[in-house]
# Entry
Amino acid sequence: MKHAVSLDNITAGYGRVRILNGLSFDVSEGEVFGVIGPNGCGKTTMLNVLSGFVTPTSGRLTIFDTDASRLTPHERCSLGVGRTWQIPRPFDKMTVADNVKTGAVHGAKIPIDKAQGAAEEALGIAGLMSKKDCLAGELTLLDRKKLELARALATKARLLLLDEVAAGLTEAEAGEVMDLVRALKDKKYTIIWIEHNIEVMLGAADRLMCMSEGRNVILDTPEKVMNSKIVEELYLGSEA
Ligand SMILES: Nc1ncnc2c1ncn2[C@@H]1O[C@H](COP(=O)(O)OP(=O)(O)O)[C@@H](O)[C@H]1O
Ligand SMILES: [Mg+2]
# Structure
């Protein structure tokens, strides 16, 4: 199967602090690729490298057959990369539909008079159509997370980078997130999906990677990763 993303021995960090220490992995087109690991191990930094907010200091990053290491976030958006943020960042005083339209206009370069259709399609997929006329600032946390997703979809992204969509949600709401990711998989999106809560990903992820200290320590089927000694020790270690 074709690779949507390849990281080859990536190192990256903030200033002089190195966070990613030779991170390597490939994600196939259409795959749901789950990422777990203790707090601070570099999961969000890895998404920052993929979306262009952090530039690697060494290694090679390929996205959809293009060397992406030096591309700006904007250029990656044109390549089909869309991300959600761990803390949702909508424009609170704008309606849900207008928030999503910004993704269509600035990301997918759809003229403003045609953006409503693209926005509604994205809202439909994200399950937020009934809230389209609400102000973003009035949404519940789950709906704010859906709005993040709809904005990314409206940029015509093919690769979705999801950062802890289920964090802070109730169990039932987290189940809704899992269903949503499954629906996106059926629509052939490639998804790199970080969650701290492993259970949420079991029903939707094709493979799981566990990171520790900026490296990939295990990458396998969800069952094998769940039952691995390394993950048990990392998670018990981080709770202790
Ligand atoms: N903008 C930043 N500047 C400096 N250090 C940062 C910045 N963002 C994250 N870090 C540090 O990088 C490390 C990895 O953080 P992060 O990638 O957010 O981890 P995770 O998402 O796995 O919890 C942490 O020690 C964090 O404090
Ligand atoms: Mg994080």
About this structure: Residues 6 and 62 are 5 Å apart (CA to CA). The pocket of magnesium ion (ligand 2) is lined by residues 43-44, 86 (CB under 6 Å). The chain has a mean pLDDT of 94. The chain has nine helices and ten strands.
